[in-house]
Amino acid sequence: MTKEYKTITEIAGPLIFLEKTEPVGYNELVHINLPDGTTKRGQVLDTSADVVAVQVFEGTGGLNEESGVVFSGETIKLPVSKDMLGRILSGAGEPLDGGPRIVPEDRVDVNGASMNPYSRMPPEDFIQTGISTIDGTNTLVRGQKLPIFSGSGLPHNEIALQIARQAKVPGSDEPFAVVFAAMGITNEEAQYFMEDFEKTGALERAVVFLNLADDPAVERIITPRMALTAAEYLAYEHDMHVLVILTDITNYCEALRQMGAAREEVPGRRGYPGYMYTDLASLYERAGVIKGLKGSVTQFSILTMPGDDITHPIPDLSGYITEGQIVVSRELHMKGIYPPINVLPSLSRLMNSGIGEGKTRDDHKAVSDQMYAGYAEGRDLRGLVAIVGKEALSERDQKILEFADLFEDRFVRQGRDEDRSIEDTLQVGWDILSELPEALLTRIDNKYIEKYHPAHKSN
Which range is the signal sequence, renumbered to this chain (predicted)? Predict the structure, then answer.
């Protein structure tokens, strides 16, 4: 027989504190029965010999000392099934699309473990997003965790949706799915996401979790774990290759800070909890490929840098854990360029594992290096032009300066629905490189110039 405790001594923000309970487990699921007959859910946050702290998912409004608390004896579990594909769920896993509850094939603990490094396979399969600045210069590899660093007001949500629509492994007929989790978004953004998924047909192969800004902060901490649990189930039980898109990690970290303040913890950098690095790692490290299993989990986590500060604790810690970053530029956005991805501070540490002959194309690395070098020099020359004027530049430098403009206008810029294949991306790269004298193509082997350069291909 389950016991109901009416020993609430304190209610602080989203937390309640109980005394005189029997031993309970950390992260245990709790049901709170209110005097008006309604029930709320919570989770054990801290437990000691004298006091148990419980975080309440639906907020503590209406709770008082007469409320009864029942400990379930189990952690939060997500009902999982292949029927999840095509569904839109709340951040707590409840249907938002008017459909029925999911009939579970299994119920899985959302607090999954990080992947054992010994069991990891080195990622090596190229994932095509259809976005040239990612595919061409900062390639995503199956099993990688690659965050997008953005800023307030930049089109990171549009980029996320475009990736969700277009991502695929070229030449592979293996089942591919997308798990999309949005945290702390407005109702307007939620409608935009839902309409886009339904209109474009991307919903057929997607599972969507939406946590709204007016939902309790505590639920925001559960949402990414729900998404990753669904992704792991589809990947390792149904042999699917799953791309997980989490937006916005900054809202998740704000919820962590809010919970830390409610627990009166000693704050770390800028008020965030000292354990935020460990907490973020527990999410990011659930991506990868496991030896002996066919499926994989790849992660794109999007975070908005407060004040566009890349040294802020959230992007700083994320950069330590993940395998690179894609940086969205406010300067390119102000020029009207979409997607405004700046390739210079962007990095994919696993790019070399997923490109080359048999994966993308033999000239991929050389073209990427040459474009990067030319664009970097061209950006530096813009600063010089502001001081001495364009006329003071040598003919070589003027060519490089023009290349930087071409790179932004033809390689970076593309339509919101434009899905470029890797061949298209590399062709655009060759087209703009052909505007430079061949003598300046110092990072490309002559055999690739003879094979792919437009001037030689036409001969």
Answer: none
Q: In this structure, which amino acid lies at residue 442?
A: T
Give every CB contact of residue 10 below 8 A, 6+ residues apart in sequence: 16, 17
Cα(455)–Cα(329) distance, rounded to whole angstroms?
33
**Beta carbons of 215 and 59 less than 8 angstroms apart:** no
Q: What is the pLDDT of residues 328-386, one digit of tens each?
A: 999 999 999 999 999 999 999 999 998 988 889 999 999 999 999 999 999 999 888 88
Indicate the pTM of the whole model. 0.89
Q: Which residues contact 196 (CB under 8 A, 6 or more apart)?
A: 161, 165, 202
Residue by residue, DSSP assigns 242-279 as EEEEEE-HHHHHHHHHHHHHHTTPPB-GGG-BTTHHHH
Indicate the Cα dihedral angle 214, 216, 217, 220, nearest 10°.
Answer: -90
- Record the tokens describing residue 383, joined without a space: 């600063």
Contacts made by residues 35-39, CB under 8 angstroms, sequence distance 24+: 35/64, 35/66, 35/67, 36/62, 38/62
Cα–Cα dist 62/11, whole Å: 11
Overall average pLDDT of the 78-87 stretch:
90
pLDDT digits (tens, 9 = 90+) for 91-103: 888 888 888 888 8
Distance in angstroms (rounded) separating the CA atoms of residues 54 and 42? 6
What's the full length of the chain, in residues? 459
Q: For residues 218 and 256, what is the distance between their CA atoms, to the nearest angstrom?
A: 8
Query: Distance (Å, rounded) from C-alpha 307 to C-alpha 139?
Result: 27
List b or e across 337-374, with b for residues whose CB sees 16 or more CB atoms inside 10 angstroms: bbbbbbbeebbbebbebbbeeebbbbbbbbbbebbbeb
* Residue (of 323, 178, 303) closest to 247 by Cα position: 303
The rounded distance, in Å, linking the Cα atoms of 208 and 231 is 11
| E-state strands within 306-348 | 324-328, 341-348
Q: How far apart are CA 421 and CA 418, in angstroms?
A: 10
Which residue, among 245, 278, 247, 248, has the nearest Cα to 260 in the 3D structure? 278
Rounded distance, CA 191 to CA 194, Å? 5
